[in-house]
Amino acid sequence: MEETSDSANPVISKIQEKDASSAVAVAGHPLHAMTVHFPIALVFVTLGVDVFYWWSADPFWLRVGVWSSGGAFFLGLAAGVVGTVELLAVAGIRERVASWAHAIAAVTLIAICGLNWGMRVTEAANVLPHGLLVSVMAAVITGMAGWHGGKLIFDHGIGLMVSSRD
Fold first, then answer.
1. What digits encode the pLDDT tens for the residues 16-46?
2. Pairing mode, if any, of strands 29-30 and 25-26?
3. What's the burial of 56, exposed, middle or buried (CB within 10 Å: 0-12/13-18/19+)?
4. What are the Cα distances from residue 50, in Å, to 70, 94, 127, 161?
């Protein structure tokens, strides 16, 4: 069976012709790409904090975990709002399956981060083992969402605003 290229498929060619540059940008820099770094970092910080608490049993790490998980949730929520606007506003983004895979993984991640923060605000003593397990799950889903987001940027050129000089 002969392998066909994407350019031979008229549906894929039609989607690739659509503009996929960012609709929500500051000075040509996509806002969604700028807002995801802190929540991603805070997901992994929360995981590290949980490991430190498991290792040391120092209540200091419980307080740090409330702040880091809350930061991951609320900053992730902000990044998710910007990403959702981008997804719905730009047809070249909306019509790609990879965009929806990224969106589903990101919404799942935001829900898990909300669970992680909510568990810590209401029942700080439940950090072991439940908070640690939720933090591991958040780190795994962060990897999945990041993988799909990276594919959108590097494989599909989503959100890139390239000037005519480039």
1. 777 778 888 888 889 999 999 999 999 999 9
2. antiparallel
3. exposed
4. 14, 37, 7, 39
Residue by residue, DSSP assigns 94-153 as: HT-HHHHHHHHHHHHHHHHHHHHHHHHHH-GGGGTTHHHHHHHHHHHHHHHHHHHHHHHH
Cβ distance 23 to 89 under 8 Å?
Answer: yes
61-104 per-position pLDDT tens digit: 999 999 999 999 999 999 999 999 999 999 889 999 999 999 99
Q: Which residues contact 44 (CB under 8 A, 6 or more apart)?
A: 139, 142
Cα–Cα dist 22/85, whole Å: 10
d(CA 138, CA 122): 19
Q: What is the pLDDT of residue 1?
A: 44
Cβ-based neighbours of 27, under 8 Å, separated by 6 or more: none
